[in-house]
Design a protein that fits this description.
5 helices, 77% helix, membrane
Length: 124
């Protein structure tokens, strides 16, 4: 079952594109519409989690140049911060969010290369 699940993500890029769009939509929501965080810094954990999933999906979908995917993930995180600065409502650029995005990309890369790839090697 897990093999079929992973195969679904490795044969097409639709889920990676969908997740990319979900992150864009989430970053476009006005800040006042987002519930307050249960603890200080929780939003950074959310940023890291979103980008951790993002890089895993793209690495599974492309099976290509991992360095390019990592660079694209970090660039996407920074670009989203500039995008938020341009929005006409209460969203602003935050370097700490961009850093959390980059940390998420690196954690996701580590997870994909150390855990998922080892699992796939055992299957094939």
């Amino acid at each position: 079952m897990l093999n079929a699940f992973i195969k679904l993500f490795t044969e097409t890029k639709w889920m990676a594109w969908f997740w990319t769009l979900c992150i864009l939509v989430a970053c476009t929501i006005p800040g006042k519409s987002i519930p307050s965080a249960p603890v200080i810094g929780f939003d950074k954990v959310v940023h890291a989690g979103l980008f951790c999933v993002w890089i895993v999906l793209w690495l599974l979908a492309t099976r290509g140049n991992a360095l390019l995917c990592v660079a694209a993930g970090i660039a996407y995180g920074v670009a989203l911060e500039f995008y938020q600065q341009l929005l006409p409502f209460d969203r602003t650029f935050d370097w700490w969010d961009a850093l959390a995005d980059a940390v998420g990309v690196l954690l996701g890369y580590y997870f994909k290369t150390r855990i998922i790839d080892r699992y796939l090697q055992r299957l094939y």
